[in-house]
Structure formats: structure tokens, C-alpha cells
Amino acid sequence: MSTIKELGTGKYVPDWCPGCGNFITLMAVKKALSELGWNKEDVVIASGIGCSSKFPQWVNTFGLHGLHGRGLPMALGVKMANKKLKVIVIGGDGDVYGEGVNHFIEAIRDNIDVTLLVFDNSIYSLTKGQASPTTPRMMVTSSSPKGNLSYPLNPLSLAISQECSFVARSHTANMTHMTDIIKKALMHEGFSFVNILQECVTFNKINTAKWFKENTYELVDHNTQDKMSALVKADETEKLPIGVLYYNMKQTFENAHTVLKQKKALIERKIDEADMDSLFKEFSV
Ligand code: SF4
């Protein structure tokens, strides 16, 4: 079991802006891993590009910092090669719902056992405040000085409509709640997705910690296995519900696949040289 201190990176500290919501989520993830009793050597964190995607640099687990929108496919590859690892993907709203939205949909369809945490501050922050897929309509940004004309994507509705195995929302103004939700997502067998509302203190002056407290409420007595109820909750806009919205226990890709479902992970198996020779012969020109 790794402690929060062991999961940190010692004297190296994140270069995020003071007050950035990333700090809260970083602590919540470390707390969740520590409370679950997981060892840092068993965890891989993959990310794309963005302020939040620097995350793997600040956690003392294995990490992969990839290309824009490509955190998910790297993570799925890791999980298929070694299903015994715990695999987490970190991305922002631009990274996952913009450049990487195709991978998001594919991950839902495949239901491979990885956890996706989206740090949703409704803005492209690393590239200086352009409108992202979750920017509210008419919000003024550096790329929409007269107001954003596009309608925002609702990632929760999208995930639930496609029967994603685990769908939840939390926010950075309530770290206890967020830690609890992250732990539930990590424990879930199958593709788990948490949309984390968080503040970008530099480029989004609307969705602040105060705004999250005033405009959200915790779900109680909600039937997480009822798709229609989950869709209704995901569609609420007056106050945003936080908690697990939808839970759908279905067979994972790795438990259905003839090769992957075998007890040994792919990396633990010996490559049969004779088989490789016949493959090379078959595919050589
Ligand atoms: Fe955080 Fe925004 Fe600063 Fe990026 S620009 S580090 S998201 S506050």
C-alpha cells in the first residue's frame, strides 16, 4: 500500500496557476489510491495534452504523457498488454471531448476496465482560453470575443445514452465527495467515467468553486441502474446533480476476448517462436 506521501513527487511541485482546481483533484486521486491500499507500482496514469494532462508528472506511479486527445488509446493498449495493472486516464474537456471524442465513444463501446477522469473547466486553458466543447453558449472566450455560438456538449448524457458502464460527476469544491466518487470509479470493473467540474482561475471567471457550491446538489435516492432516470438527471441544468448517475454492470472486453480472458496477462506469456515464424512468412511480401 502506498501512502499519500509516497505517491507525491517530493521536492518537485506542479507548475499550475495558484488556485487551479487541478491541485484539489491531484490530492483527491492520491487520497483515493492510498485509501484503496493500492501500490504505486501497480498503477499507470495516462494523459493527453493540456494543463490537466501534466498530471502523470506529479504522481509517483507509472505515467504516460501522450498526444492531444490520445490518453485513452494509450491506456487501453496498456490494459490489454497487462490486465493486472490499474489504469487511469486523465484529460481535460478539450482533450477528451474535442480532439479525443472518438476515443471516448470507442472506450464506452469496448468497456475495457480503465477509469477516465475528465477535468472539466469548460475552456481550453493551456492554449490560453479558447472555447472548448463544454463552454456554455455565449460565454466570452479568447476565441469567441462576442460570445460562443456553439451549443455545449453534455458528456454525461452522451455516455449514458451509449450505456457506459459507470458515469459520475463531482467537483473540486467538495474534495471528500470527489475522493469517494473516484474510489468508486476505480473499484468498478469496466469502463468508468467521472466528469469533474473544476475551476480554471485564469481563463474561466464564471465556473468558480463558489459557483460549484451554489449550482450543484448531491444525488440521494437515485436509481443508478435506471437509464431513463439517469438521462433525466444528466439533463438537469438549473442545479447540476453530483454523484453516480448511471451504473451498468456488463461484460468487459478483456473478459469476453478469447486471448485476453486467459489467466495470464499478455506480457506474462512466452512468444512461441514457431508461431512467429509462420506469421512472418504469411505477411512478408
Ligand atoms: Fe489551471 Fe487554468 Fe492555470 Fe491551466 S490556466 S493551470 S487550468 S488555472
Which key phrases capture this entry?
285 residues, alpha/beta, Rossmann fold, eight-stranded mixed beta sheet, 11 helices, binds iron/sulfur cluster
In short:
The protein has helices spanning 4-7, 22-35, 71-81, 93-99, 101-110, 155-161, 175-187, 209-214, 227-235, 253-256, 273-283; strands at 43-47, 62-65, 86-92, 115-120, 166-171, 192-197, 216-218, 240-247.
Written description of the protein model:
The structure is a single chain. This protein has eleven helices and eight strands. 34% of the residues lie in helices and 16% in strands. It has helices at 4-7, 22-35, 71-81, 93-99, 101-110, 155-161, 175-187, 209-214, 227-235, 253-256, 273-283, and strands at 43-47, 62-65, 86-92, 115-120, 166-171, 192-197, 216-218, 240-247. The longest helix is centred in the first third of the chain and has 14 residues, at 22-35. The chain has one domain (21-283): Thiamin diphosphate (ThDP)-binding fold, Pyr/PP domains (Rossmann fold). By secondary structure, it is an alpha/beta fold. Strands 2-1-3-4-6-5-8-7 form an eight-stranded mixed β-sheet, with helices on both faces. The mean pLDDT is 95. Helix 2 (22-35) packs across helix 7 (175-187) and helix 6 (155-161) runs antiparallel to helix 9. The protein binds iron/sulfur cluster (SF4). Iron/sulfur cluster (SF4) binds at residues 16-17, 20, 22, 51, 121, 125, 200-203. Iron/sulfur cluster is lined by residues 16-17, 20, 22, 51, 121, 125, 200-203.
